[in-house]
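Hi team,

Filling in the usual template for the complex we talked about on Friday. All components are listed, including any nucleic acid strands or ligand strings, so the model treats them as one assembly.

SUBMITTER: L.P.
PURPOSE: interface mapping
COMPONENTS: three
RESIDUES: 1280
SEQUENCES:
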Amino acid sequence: MTSMIKPMRRAMPLKVLWALMAVQWVLVLPFLRYLPFWLGLVLVLVMAWRWRVMHGELRAAPFWLTLTAIAVGVAGLFFSGLTRYTLDSAVSLCVLGYLLKSLEVLRRRDGVFQVYLGYFLIGVYLLYHYDPLGALISLMMVLANTLALFAIFADRSFDWRRGMRQSAGLMAAAIPIMIVGFLFFPRIPPLWSIPNDERGAQTGMTDEVTPGSVSSLAMDRSPAFRVAFEGDLPPRHQWYWRGSTLDQFNGTSWRASYRQDNRSQWPNGRLPEAGEGERYHYSVIIQASQQHWLYFLDWPVRIDADDSRILPDGRAAARNTLSQTRRYQAQSQSDVRWASEPMQRYLDLPEGTNVRLAEWAGQQREAVDSDRAFMDRLMQHIRSEPFFYTLRPPLYPGNQGLSEFWFEGRRGFCTHYASAMAFMARSVGIPARLVGGYLGGVYNQGGEYIQVRQMEAHVWVEVWLDDQWVRYDPTAAVAPGRIESNLDEWQDASNLNELPFVTRFTGGMPLYQSLSLWWDSVEYQWQTLVLNYQQDSALSALEYRFGKINWWQAGLAMGGLMAVLGLTMAFMTGVLRLPVRVKEPWASLHHLEKRFGKRTPGETVSDYLERLSKAYPEHRDLLRQITAIINEAAYNPEQSFDKAARENLRSLVRNP
Amino acid sequence: MIKSLTALKDRWIERRLPVRRSLRLNQSRIFIVPTWQGLALLLVAALVLLLAINFESALNYALGFWLVAMLWAAVHFTYRSLSGLKLEVRKADLVEAGLEADYSLILGEDDDRYRGPIELIHPDWGLVSVELNRRATTVVLSRLLARRGAHPLPRFRLESRYPFGLVVAWSHIQLDLTAWAYPVARESEPTPTGSAGDDEGLDDQFVQSGSEDFHALRSYQPGDALHRIHWPSFARDQMMVKSFVDYQGRDEWLDWQAFPQLPDEDRLSALAWQIDQCIAADTPFGLRLPGLELPPDKGSLHYESCRRALAEYGEPS
Amino acid sequence: MPDIASVTQQLLDQSRTIIAGKDEVVRLAWVAILCDGHILLEDLPGVGKTSLAQSLARLLSLDFQRVQFTSDLLPADVLGAQMFNRELSQFEFHAGPVFTQLLLADELNRATPKAQSALLEAMEERQVSIDGISRPLPDPFYVIATQNPRSQSGTYPLPESQLDRFFVRLSLGYPDTESEKGLLRGTLGRTLMSELQPVLSPESLVRCKAEVHQVKVSEAVLDYVMRLVHRTRDADLFRLGLSPRGALALMMASRAMALTQGRHYVMPDDVQAVFSSVTEHRVQGQRQLDPKVLVQQVLDDVDVLAA
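RESULT (copied from the run log):
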């Protein structure tokens, strides 16, 4: 008598172990480049053990090996400086656990555990990679993992091709339900806040700007955010995307009052009131920047963004780190009315800095009769004097750096010009601040949106004139093309050799540009449709197309979908079968049976019809005729049962 | 209470699954539920959804619901591996009581679909797993037959977790297939019955002209075979023929009545022993049981008939 | 080309004058002869077994011999033997009655197993081996053996394992009321054997036999035959199922049956008509069940049209 081992406790055959190991590789590989190198050591250790297991040593890892692996893993964690709890270290821990668990994969239960841990790991991977490519990679991972699950239960009969078919089939069959769940499951706000939710490095504008500091962004072509306008686009020279304002100057660098590190002290601000002129409605999808700043077209008058706070400097910031792409909506106008505020902090200047520049500015102010004229004069000065725009300016260190730039160097980019101009404005008593954000962008024809990249980061000046904040962009004066065209074209046209090599190389290729535009629009669609899917907007999109949808229509549509789904699955699984059309002559025989009663199993056609003709003597001749036709058709291989004969039989059978 | 509940359940299942010689699994026979492992997948899905909610990760919503939907789809996949499955009895052994008998079943049919490994479970044989790969496959279930008589194939559980183990589909199978156990042979002396009728014509039957043993010379008769002519006497101008006889033991009758002193089961054991003796000695024998008489014969077919008769004695047919 | 259907009709017409009301048995016997098969007639004495054999021989213009099997019959009495001729002082072969085209082995089960097996071997081999010399039997060679029902005493039943050397087992049974009345009235069965006219020459018979192999069998009929055969191998009904040889015989007989009906293709009706005669003596029922009953049950249960 055989004893029965519970299914989950059964040992797995070798080829299943192989499959599990292969799948483990597939799942760990995408993580490798993000993980510290010591995890590679653990991986090697684990794989070496599994290799041994599959070459004869079919037993669980001994205690010392497990202990060693854990020790290496934990020591690695500490030495890599991941002692503090962050999401990154948590992920490392997850992968470590996943690897260690596989030391003892011998029984089904362990295999299933590996697979389930794998599913969770894919979920973790998706926290970092939500672009289409990442989704594709995790799709492969899910497939591999499902294949492993198949392998465990196919046991000895496991076969790669069948496994692939079954796994892909299961996933495909699950897609409709998945979509329904994805569409209709309410998006719940986070149940608890995640400490140190940082996935990767921060990108974008910083809270402190020193002249020369933004240049690192100039070679970064990755998108910062994308803006889609409802209706007309604003003219190109107005594409100023404001982020933070920097109002504290210490002589060398500018610092924001509302910084990422003093979030708790942010006041609740109000946006400027709308004035005359056209109002632009737009929505922004911002990439995960690991920062808090949201960007708006100058100047927002209305902002609809969840989980954010409106700041007094005409913008809003996210309360939590932007670790996912985020979508928000806003309205902007070029003409707004600002509320007045205490101006003293926009006038503060440290003593003894850039003395020459302050003196020079004073002389210039004397020469004109208004602040506005002073500002225009500065712009004019930049335009007429030999100032140069370059991404590789010389260094202007120290607290006289701005003077040095203005009088001697005369080479710089936006931060230099903006710093110098704001400094001069303050030195003559005009409230001024720097604005950090982006300028311009690429209009994507296919996707009908503007893509703004990191390389388009920009700094400009706002001064308080006539109870309004007025934008001055000295860069526009030195390099007008930078404002009117997009950065690629402008770089093509002018100082090419100032640009980093890669940008120069790829920028010149039209095919590459159109491809990257296309891919960007794919990403944009992905972000609007998938990542920032919102139930209301989906519903409104439907209603936009089909008109107002009421409850019963929605229910009908859902019911229809489920019915189609259920039927498809039923046919697929053989619960239902399509009725097979009975061919002649059997169809005619069935017809007769329906009319005159059933044939018994052992009765031949002749016997049956003979019996009928006894019961219905009036039809005897007809029945005999039918008998002959059916027998001929059914049993005489040489007799062709053509259409005419079929018709004949049918008419004979259906007539009496 | 539990017991009566179990009995009730058994009765219900019996009614739903009538005994028969072949059957095809369909909706009314297949039961299907998620396994613990399938429920664990829901837990994993819940964890992934938690990731989705807390990190506002849209793709994790998709992944979470995908896992849930996969469990739902797996129900269909596993159902498919049992649905329409044909089972047919083939044969069951006739063995001595105390030995294992094989029950052969045919699972699946030619031109079927691939159904993966299917398990047949019963405490008597534990678990028998068979992979159904588009062909009719014979499954052998071995089972100890402890006592003499009929041993119908018990109702057993047929289950499949293929392909993903997330759900288990099963059916209780009862097929009409009976293995028979004939009694254990045990030596007992028969009581001589001494019926006169039986002895009649003993000589007649005892020696019969035949071909086995040389008996005597006799004079030639036309038609005698050439190779039987006794050539030494032919040289003396006498036509003599060698005559042979077969010593034919009188047909052995193994008789129920020969053991009046024994209880029924022991009588059967004694008869089984006698049958073994006859087979060893290669003598033909007949068997008489109340209401049954098997004429003397030899050969495996005959032996099987006799043993089967012993196995069937007193069993309801 | 002889038209087998009309030959069959003539055969039936003529034999009806000898044994009335037994058309189906005669037809089955004729089917067996078309298939080169031997016939086992199992019946009570006096129902016309001998007449059937004799009239068949006469109608088909076959040589006819008859051997009455008794318990003291020796193999040599059937097969023949080397005899010593004293005049010539040498052995010469005296052919036994088996050297004929149609042998009626009457009451085969009265003979000893030895004599029985001599005949059965001759039937199988279609030759006789005596003292080391093989002598072929005439072609065609048919045996019609008769056997009394087993219950009669003083018999040696044919070994079951050898019964399938007979192509068919037939049974005449009592005549039906109408025929028996005619018999008693004297209007039937008055024809003398010698008045029968042959319906077929030996050469035509050879051609007819060749014709059997030309009969077409459709897939549907083949499936039906397979279903029947499989059913006889059902271990719970049959202890011994139909052997592949038996299945082959069934198919052949069905073909011949179709021919006698004037068809060149087989219908399930043909299979059913021959099934009992071909099958009953080749199978053994489980639990002492009567094969006759079982075979009929198989015919009733197995669906003619589909599985």
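MY TAKE: Chain C has eleven helices and eleven strands. Chain C touches chain A through 19 residues (CB under 8 Å).

Thanks, L.
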